[in-house]
Amino acid sequence: MDLKTKSGYVSIVGKTNAGKSTLLNNILGQKIAITSRKPQTTRHRFLGIRTDNEFQIIFVDTPGFHSGQKRALNRYMNKVASNAMRGVDIVLYVLDKLNWTEEDLSRVNSISDETSVILVINKVDKLEEKNSLLPFIKELSEKDLFSHIIPISALKNLGVEDLVKLIHEKLPIGGHLYPEDQVTDISERFLASEIIRENCINRLGDELPYRISVSIERFSEVKGIIHIDSVIFVEKQSQKGMLIGQSGSMLKSIGTASRKELEKLLESKVMLKTWVKVKSGWSDNESLLPSMGYDLDK
Ligand SMILES: Nc1nc2c(ncn2[C@@H]2O[C@H](COP(=O)(O)OP(=O)(O)OP(=O)(O)O)[C@@H](O)[C@H]2O)c(=O)[nH]1
Ligand SMILES: [Mg+2]
């Protein structure tokens, strides 16, 4: 091991919609995580790796904590997020502006003393009361919960590189764990399902996105064309109708936008087929979740 190299795991956690995935994409300089203005966009834990010469940071993006919904899928997502706070070197606890609650306090208190916790106050570009930022930081720093408190805007790229520098300083000495050109551990197949889900989220009303799950049934390259067959699962027949739209217009728009984006990301021509199927009440069915990719043991 080269003693000059530093590397470590850094989990990005916080309430849903705080901007965790936006921050990860921004740090990596490329989109690996889908984002949306609606809560509960990220459903899985995955890695984003940034290597700068001797430093390698292995970020862990996580589903946001959510206290309102109590379906099996929501319980699964909260569990994935809590698990991701363990066994890592640093936790970035991301806040949406100054929205700090007792729930945040109890989650931060549950993090092991051996892990450094950096509070990241995101979306400062949207902060109306700019004068309230400093007193807020002062008050929270007195609680002795965080090694640092950093205000940023993930979307406008303010303070993000300072945050990366700070992480570099705090990384433990150790050899790199991934090749320097590897950016993520997600597969192209998983990326395809996420891009389709993001295009659904962006086009559908507020409730339907939570009833959708995307599964890739085929992902294969034939003569330079990537063939992707996907199924979008919904919970009810009426939702199927909404997703397909009048004369199939909604599904067509989701399919076309997803194909175009995937062609860019995969740098290949893509042939995408999408079907919509009903899997009754899947999001509140513990025993169905693993077969749909929501499995804590994986
Ligand atoms: N104005 C502003 N908006 C932001 C900023 N960061 C993220 N957003 C927006 O906040 C919304 C949520 O962002 P995400 O990155 O999906 O949030 P998340 O924390 O990953 O959300 P979940 O995966 O659902 O837990 C999106 O509409 C982003 O564009 C920021 O710094 N400023
Ligand atoms: Mg996210």
Description:
The chain is α/β, with parallel strands linked by helices and 298 residues long. It contains eight helices and nine strands. The chain has two domains: 6-170, P-loop containing nucleotide triphosphate hydrolases (Rossmann fold), CATH 3.40.50; 188-292, GMP Synthetase, Chain A, domain 3. It has helices at 20-28, 72-83, 102-109, 133-141, 160-170, 188-203, 237-244, 249-266; strands at 6-14, 46-52, 55-61, 90-96, 116-122, 148-151, 213-222, 225-234, 269-278. A six-stranded mixed beta sheet has the order 2-3-1-4-5-6, with helices on both faces. Helix 6 packs antiparallel against helix 8 (249-266). It is globular. The mean pLDDT is 96. The structure holds guanosine-5'-triphosphate and magnesium ion.
Count of structural domains: 2
Q: Globular, elongated, flat, extended or rod-shaped: what is the shape?
A: globular
* CATH class value of the largest domain: Alpha Beta
Looking at how many chains there are and whether they match, the oligomeric state comes to: single chain
Topology:
Layout (H helix, E strand, L loop, with lengths): L5 E9 L5 H9 L17 E7 L2 E7 L10 H12 L6 E7 L5 H8 L6 E7 L10 H9 L6 E4 L8 H11 L17 H16 L9 E10 L2 E10 L2 H8 L4 H18 L2 E10 L20
Question: What's the short version?
Answer:
Helices cover 31% and strands 24% of the residues. It has helices spanning 20-28, 72-83, 102-109, 133-141, 160-170, 188-203, 237-244, 249-266; strands at 6-14, 46-52, 55-61, 90-96, 116-122, 148-151, 213-222, 225-234, 269-278.
